[in-house]
Structure formats: C-alpha cells, structure tokens
Amino acid sequence: MTAEIISGTEIRKAILAEVKEEVDQMKEKHGKVPGLVTILVGSSPASISYVTLKVKTAISLGFHEIQDDQPEDISEEDLLGLIDKYNNDPDIHGILVQLPLPKHIDDKKVLVAIDPDKDVDAFHPVNVGRLMIGGDEAKFYPCTPAGIQEMIIRSGTETSGAEVVVVGRSNIVGKPIAMMMAQKGVGANSTVTIVHTRTKDLASHCKRADILIVAAGVPGLVKPEWIKPGSTVIDVGVNRIGMNEKTGKAILSGDVDFNAAKEIAGAITPVPGGVGPMTIAMLMKNTLKSAQYALK
Ligand code: NAP
C-alpha cells in the first residue's frame, strides 16, 4: 500500500482561496479588510526573503499591508514605540516582528509588547496561556502547529481517541501541537504522548502512534519499522542534507525516511512541500480571524 501524500502546497492554495473569499465578503459587508504590519529590522537576506513572501501573500489576498523596514541600529525603545503605535492603530489587526532581532534588542521584551489580540504569530505568553485553556479562549494558534492540525483534519484522519505521538518538545512546535491535539474539539480529542531526547525507547512510542508528528530536526530519525501501518505521519523536520550543484539550492530532507515510510503509512507529508508551505497560510488565516474579532 502506498500512502496518501498530504500536500501542504495544495492545502495552502485551498486555504488562501478561502481567506480571499472571506476578505472580499468583509470588504463588501463592512468596508474593511484585515490589516497586517510586518516589521523587519536590519537586512538579513533570509529575513528579507521571509518578509517579502508574507507581504506578497497579504497583498494578493487584498489585505491592508504595511511593510515597515527599520535600520539595524534602531533602539529597543524606538522599536517598542513603533509596536505601541500599531497596537493603537484600528486598521492593523496583525503585528509581525521578523525574528531574529539584532543582539542589542531583547526579543522577549518586543514579543510581550505586542497586543495579544494582534499577536498573529501567537508567541505572546497570553496566547500560550489561551492555547492551554483551549476552546473559545484560544484566539490564535501558532502558525506551524495550526498548519499541522489543519493538514491532519483535511487528510480525513480521525483524531478523536487516536494515539498521537509528538517527537520534540519545543515551544514553537512540539509543546503547542501536543496541547492542541489533546484539547476537546474538532481535529483534537486525542491521547497524546510527547517524546524527546531523554525518552527511553523512542521506537516503542512511535510504533503505537495512529498519528505521528515528528519535529526533532534530525534527518532520518524515525525509522520505517517504527511506523504503524496505516497511520498518519506528519514530518515537520526541515534539514539541509546537501547542495544541488546544478541549481545551487539546498537539498532538504525531513526527520522521517519518506520513501520507505510512504509504503507503510496511510497518509504522510513530504519534505519539502508538506508542513513548510502551511505556516504562511495560517498566518494569513490568523490575521483574518483577528480582523473578524475586531468587527464583533
Ligand atoms: P528544536 O527547538 O531544536 O527542538 C527539537 C526537539 O526535538 C527537542 O525537544 C529535542 O529534544 C527533540 N529531539 C532532538 N533530537 C532528538 C532525538 N534524537 N530523539 C528524540 N527527540 C529529539 O526544534 P524545532 O524548532 O521544534 O524544529 C524542529 C524541526 O522542525 C526542525 O527541523 C525545524 O527546521 C523544523 N520546523 C519546520 C517548520 C516549518 O516547516 N514551517 C517550522 C518550525 C520548525 P530535547 O528537548 O530533549 O532536546
């Protein structure tokens, strides 16, 4: 049996089309559109390329988008002042500060300065707390875990009562997705185990997973024989394992041996083209949600 391939590229397309439709309706009904500001400090090529993609996507959806580029030497005080300005701007529903920030600026201070109701990345401690409470309290979910849950739902995988094993316990992927899958609600109600480097016998946990979510950053960590036949495997890992000499681009691999695993799993995400493309779609969805909350 060959697994269904859960394509993040295709699901992203569908989500962005849905967001666009809702933006058009909002504009027609309320004369308003979601507003997103992307704050980029400095000129790191990687940050510029991430921000450019976010800006382009926001514009293509009809958002009110402000790209606010600031010099590398902006003071922490001035950056906090800028965030305060956008916190108080009723046309802005999402504030995104591209990380990493220069060393003289304290990331944590900046992230907590964002109004939690405009924190579309959902890294603010208030939003972490809301995620833990679950239900209506959780306004936004962080984008990568939100993308993972969306892929699980759209692949038709049953989550209620399912054994979910999450490999990795980071604040941006492992811990939030584990908590989201354990909550009451659609695409959740699962029995969740988190495993990490101190776990004894990683294989035995993975083998009983109906849904295996791997976010370790270790290429080939999950062996094909650890995969339960028919299970859903979400490979979050993005590892550079070489360079394509012809294109000059990095060769990427996940944390799971995809070619072998797809012969055992029921559904699986590829790398690239799996979880990666979902993150930006969920960022746009969070910004739309924020604008919808503001209209209530
Ligand atoms: P991280 O902060 O480095 O956390 C990795 C986690 O995996 C840690 O909890 C670590 O355990 C665990 N781990 C590492 N090696 C392990 C092993 N041999 N056995 C068991 N557990 C192990 O990484 P992250 O930020 O969560 O990212 C994980 C991967 O996802 C990376 O490849 C990253 O590039 C990728 N990622 C992709 C996206 C996307 O596609 N949009 C977004 C975010 C991350 P300890 O806590 O015990 O050290």
Break the fold down into its secondary structure elements and pairings.
Elements: E1 4-5, H1 8-30, E2 35-41, H2 45-60, E3 64-70, H3 76-87, E4 94-97, H4 107-113, H5 125-133, H6 143-154, E5 163-167, H7 174-182, E6 191-195, H8 202-207, E7 211-214, E8 232-235, E9 239-243, E10 250-253, H9 258-261, E11 267-268, H10 278-295
Parallel strand pairs: 1-11, 2-3, 2-4, 5-6, 5-7, 7-8, 8-11
Antiparallel strand pairs: 9-10
Helix pairs in contact: 1-10, 6-7, 6-10
The site of NADP nicotinamide-adenine-dinucleotide phosphate (NAP) has 25 residues, from loops.
Task: Describe the 3D structure.
There is one protein chain. The protein is an alpha/beta fold and 296 residues long. The protein is 39% helix and 17% strand. Strand 9 and strand 10 (250-253) form a beta hairpin. The mean pLDDT is 97. The structure holds NADP nicotinamide-adenine-dinucleotide phosphate. Residues 144, 167-170, 172-174, 195-198, 202, 215-218, 221, 236-239, 275-276, 279 line the site of NADP nicotinamide-adenine-dinucleotide phosphate.
